[in-house]
Amino acid sequence: LSVASVEDPVVMSKIRQNLREKHARHIADLRAYYDSEIQSLKQQLESSHGTASSEELKKINQSLADRDWCNLYVLNRCDQLDAALNEASARIKALENKNNLLEKQVAEWRERFCAISNSSRALQERLEESRAAHKEKDNTISRLRSRLRELQEAFEKAYKLSDNKNTRLQEENKMFQNLLGEYESLGKEHERVKDTLNTTENKLLDANTEISDLKRTILKLEAQLKQVEHENTLKLRH
């Protein structure tokens, strides 16, 4: 039998059915044979009862007793083999159920592992997007700082050279306040992006930890499955 045939429950059911049928036919043949032998000896005993001597009758009786003992031994042996066959069938059935349960557990853990892997990839993509946005915000803040320094320098020059100092001061001060407001807004948004980035990194670390745990669990379940399959193969060979 190949491994695939042994693992097929339909094939195993047919094998057990054939063994039961052969065992039953064998027991019936043995019983018929010994019944015919006993009947033959009884007929010989009846036919030779009038002419046989006491010694011959003792031999015939001893032969009948031996045949009866042999018949009883064969019947007991057949009952023992039948019980052993039933026990082996029950053990094979239990191993098949355990094998099916382990296969279901492995399939469930694999599905969960795939789902967590997909979630981890999604978190990784979001983390990359957040990093790109964070980098872009940093570049924007750098440009605004450069622009702010330029405006400060222009404001100082305009303040020194302009005759209408108060008017230009108000205009430049207004522009400066607007830039400060935009700078503060970008700074707050930058802090929010940093918080989001840290949260995403923590989630990614948790997902990677759970993936590692699932990998170890799957390896353990596969090892148990191989052990059960090995035990099942040994039982089937026995």
Description:
- This is MPP9 phase.
- Residues 78-231 form a coiled coil.
- It comes from Dryoscopus gambensis.
- With 238 residues, the protein is mainly α.
- 95% of the residues lie in helices and 0% in strands.
- The chain has a domain at 60-188.
- It is built from four helices and no strands.
- Mean pLDDT is 78; it is low at 1-6.
Sequence-ordered SSE layout with sheet pairings:
Elements: H1 3-7, H2 9-47, H3 54-161, H4 165-237
Helix pairs in contact: 2-3, 3-4
Coiled coil: 78-231
Keywords: Coiled coil
InterPro entries: MPHOSPH9
* Helix amount: over 70%
Strand content: under 5%
Q: Overall pLDDT, averaged?
A: 78
Largest sheet: none
CA-based gyration radius: 46 Å
User: Shape from CA axes?
Assistant: rod-shaped
Order of helices and strands: HHHH
Distance between the termini: 13 Å
Based on the structure, what is the oligomeric state of the protein chains? single chain
Please state the structural category: mainly alpha
Q: Helical stretch count?
A: 4
Number of strands: 0
